Amino acid sequence: MQAVAQPVVKQNVTRGSVLGIENMPMAEINKLLQLARQMNPLRAKPVLRGKRVLLLFYEASTRTRASFEIAAKSLGAMTTLVLSSGSSIEKGESLLDTAYTLRAVGADVIVVRHPNAGAPLLMANHLDIPVINAGDGMHEHPTQALLDAYTILRHKKKLEGLQVTIVGDIYHSRVARSAIHLLTKAGAKVTLCGPLELLPEITTTLARGLRIARSCEDAVRGSDVIMVLRVQRERLAGLKVSLPDYISRYQMTMPRLRLAKNDALLMHPGPIIRGLELTWEVADCPQSVIVEEVKNGVPVRMAVLARALGKAS
Fold this sequence. Notes:
The protein has helices at about 25-35, 65-75, 95-105, 120-125, 140-155, 175-185, 215-220, 235, 245-250, 255, 280-285, 290-310; strands at about 50-55, 80-85, 110-115, 130-135, 165, 190-195, 210-215, 225-230, 265. It is α/β, with parallel strands linked by helices. The strands form 2 sheets. A 5-stranded parallel β-sheet has the order 7-6-5-8-9. The relative contact order is 0.17.
């Protein structure tokens, strides 16, 4: 985990920016979750009418990009999508010059996904408008953690005291990092599970109280929530763990899921790869809230955008 930069949020970041969960107080997290509960995409008030939301995506995205766009439009904002392909970025324009250009053409808030950790923070330190991190490298994915917490709370009374197990490629996962920070802040007990190559021992330094289990059965036993992460085949290339070995030891199957509590939630940030990190049966079982997570991304991102532009009341 030492290869990943840990950006520190500076004081000159524009109010309303959401750059990560690590430096976000639990009180602010609770305010966003409470605001999200008030958001209804089907009966939303156009509180962002006349505002321009720029979606700047340097990486491919379906769920995050679509839900941010729907969230913005549900609140009455105008959206513009800028992809790295087919833009001046392809010609070598720097991140900051792109940011200055988008601000100059009228952006009121920029939602950015970037392959480099700290890219949203760099933008936020040089712009006078809010910047929202939609995923930066192997660093964080704060709105995913917020929507996951929102989803859990729709089924459980509180996060404090919950037994949460995260299984998979934790080393490369910005989703896991943000989830770890939020869940531990809230008082959940988090167990991480995966092979050494995808879950080094140093991961326990991310937050207090983290536990590592190498056996999937041991990890999920008695869990209230199981969060399965995407595994990219190419990242297994050259590692000691093979694809068949990973599937044998860490794939979420119904027998393993049954070791958790009867009302345990099965989560996955997507995109899911059926037959690799989980079976078809698990993906579609009654305990699965995978589709619900996607749906909940809209009200959560509505709350984030409303807060960013000072329309959180």
